[in-house]
């Protein structure tokens, strides 16, 4: 599970706009914006949430902490 804060932070660390994440993950921009506007854990289509998470991890993002109480992200050194 990941939180909306983690998705936003990961996107910013990568220097991506919402459109970049939408294109790279295959998730529509409206859906991505809706997910990013949520509080806490992402709620919705689990396939789309997994696509976002997988896309960010493929871009070397590591999700850290507890996504509900201490969400974090980092860039994995390659």
Question: What is the element layout, followed by pairings?
Answer:
Layout: H1 4-14, H2 18-25, H3 29-37, H4 46-58, E1 61-64, E2 72-75
Antiparallel strand pairs: 1-2
What is the molecular shape? globular
The end-to-end span amounts to 24 Å
Structural class: mainly alpha
Largest sheet: 2 strands, antiparallel
The CATH architecture can be named as: Orthogonal Bundle
* CATH topology grouping: 434 Repressor (Amino-terminal Domain)
Order of helices and strands: HHHHEE
Report the sheet-strand fraction: 5-15%
Briefly, what is this?
The chain is mainly α and 78 residues long.
Explain this structure.
With 78 residues, this protein is mainly alpha-helical. It contains four helices and two strands; from the N terminus they run H-H-H-H-E-E. It has helices at 4-14, 18-25, 29-37, 46-58, and strands at residues 61-64, 72-75. It has a two-stranded antiparallel sheet. Strand 1 (61-64) and strand 2 (72-75) form a beta hairpin. Helix 2 (18-25) packs across helix 4 (46-58). The model has no long low-confidence stretch (mean pLDDT 96).
């Amino acid at each position: 599970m990941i939180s909306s804060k983690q998705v936003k932070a990961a996107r910013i660390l990568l220097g991506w706009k919402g459109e970049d994440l939408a294109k790279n993950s295959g998730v529509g921009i409206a859906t991505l914006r809706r997910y990013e506007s949520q509080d806490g854990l992402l709620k919705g289509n689990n396939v789309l949430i997994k696509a976002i998470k997988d896309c960010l991890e493929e871009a070397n993002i590591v999700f850290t902490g507890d996504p509900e109480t201490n969400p974090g992200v980092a860039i994995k050194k390659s």
